[in-house]
Amino acid sequence: MNQEWNAEKYSSGFSFVYKYGTDVLNLIDAENVHDVIDLGCGTGTLTNELAGMGFNVTGIDASAEMLRTARGNFPALRFIQSDATDFRLDDLVDVVFSNAVLHWIDRTRQPLMMRCVYDSLRPGGQFVFEMGGVGCGKMIHDKLAENFKACGYEYVMPFFFPSVGEYAGLLEDAGFTVRYALLFDRPTELKGDDGLRDWINMFVKIPFESVSSEDREKILHDTVGGLRDKLFHGGKWYADYVRLRMRAVKE
Q1: What CATH number is attached to the domain comprising 94?
Q2: Residue 218 resides in a domain
Q3: What gap in Å lies between CA 146 and CA 20, rounded to an integer?
Q4: Neighbouring residues of 20: CB distance < 8 A, sequence distance ≥ 6
Q5: Residue 165's closest CA among 181, 154, 177, 152?
Q6: For 164, phi and psi rounded to 5 degrees?
Q7: What is the bridge-based pairing of β-strands 56-61 and 78-81?
Q8: Rounded Cα–Cα distance for residues 184 and 68 (Å)
Q9: Residues 142-152: tens digit of each pLDDT
Q10: How many domains does the chain have?
Q11: Does 31 fall in a domain?
């Protein structure tokens, strides 16, 4: 799935994405690691963190807007514009790292992405990532679906949130050996009084493409109002995130 991104707003309003990603860096077994790909690098913050760990790192992202920001922020680093399901490297690498990206890829296209990753790794190379897992944002998406239906629309889930078993099976089919897997709840604070509305506007764009402006406003209003008692606590909005962290190895 591809959508347009506002890189500036993403960086300023949703910094939790890369801040939580710093924990995922610790999953990398750094012994004998030199060359690393940051797949879906966005604005390059974690690409820079990887470089700071001493790795020779290249960021890959499909969004020209994100990469303009990344290159402006980190001019010394290398960035490539390419789709995660269709990229090729001139040289093999030791690690492909990815944070908060893989759930954007439709399930039917996951094997294409995994083949690209597998073919990019040296023998013994690692695929280390975090993505949304089964149940991620369930309250939000269920409420959106309810309000879409009330306005006469079908809500098509814009993300792929797998279980450990489902995703491990896909990785194994691609030739990987899964060495680490963790599925966990992570309620995530959203910034500002309009945190939930802003989150929907940033991340749930495609389902609204066929919705009239009037119905869009009603769906947003009813969704935010309907979730206030569940996701607004202590004066702050939270998203009901569930995360899946994994490390798989090309044997």
Answers
A1: 3.40.50.150
A2: no
A3: 30
A4: 99, 100, 130, 186, 188, 243
A5: 181
A6: -60, -45
A7: parallel
A8: 33
A9: 999 999 999 99
A10: 1
A11: yes
CA distance 150 to 159: 22
Q: Which domain holds residue 18?
A: 7-137+159-191+240-250
Q: pLDDT tens, 153-185?
A: 999 999 999 999 999 999 999 999 999 999 999
* DSSP states of the chain: ------HHHHHHH-THHHHHHHHHGGGS--TT--EEEEET-TTSHHHHHHHHTT-EEEEEES-HHHHHHHHHH-TTSEEEE--TTS---SS-EEEEEEES-GGGS-GGGHHHHHHHHHHHEEEEEEEEEEEE-TTTTHHHHHHHHHHHHHTT-----------HHHHHHHHHHTTEEEEEEEEEEEEEEE-STTHHHHHHHHH--GGGTTS-HHHHHHHHHHHHHHHHHHHEETTEEEEEEEEEEEEEEE-
CA-CA distance, 126 to 116, in Å (whole number)?
13
Domain-located, residue 225: no
Whether 131 is in a domain gets the answer yes
The backbone torsions φ and ψ at residue 56, rounded to the nearest 5 degrees and listed phi first, read: -85, 105
Buried b or exposed e, range 47-76, using 16+ CB within 10 angstroms: bbbbbeeebebbbbbbbebbbebbbeebee
Cα 76 to Cα 152: distance, rounded to the nearest angstrom: 50
Q: Average pLDDT, stretch 98-115?
A: 97
The span from the CA of 206 to the CA of 155, in Å, is: 10
Name the packing angle between helices 164-173 and 110-120 (round to 10°): 50
Give Cα 62 distance to the centre of its chain: 13
